[in-house]
Write a structure and sequence with these properties.
Length: about 90
């Protein structure tokens, strides 16, 4: 398994403490211990892994955090059956 690569972009997470920045990682496959997410798995601040749908990394995976503007797009990915993973 190829190791993940830290991207030059990140995600700002608003939280009760005012917010913080999280790095985004590029994975080539879901790491062991991750499973497909359900809508019930997703709550504010939860980290997840989703399959990239366009561009040069199509088919690979990026990390994300379920918060703010990501909530509805992630829910829609799950509803459509697109791969979104979480770790218990």
């Amino acid at each position: 398994m190829k190791p993940p690569v830290k991207l030059e972009i990140g995600q700002w997470i608003d939280d009760r403490f005012g917010g913080h920045h999280e790095d985004i990682w590029h994975y080539f496959e879901p790491p062991p211990g991750m499973r497909l997410a359900t809508l019930r798995d997703m709550y504010p601040g939860r980290q997840f892994l989703y399959q990239v749908q366009i561009g040069p990394d199509k088919g690979d995976y990026y990390t994300g955090f379920f918060a703010g503007n990501s909530i509805e797009p992630v829910r829609e990915k799950i509803r459509r059956g697109l791969p979104v993973y979480v770790k218990d």
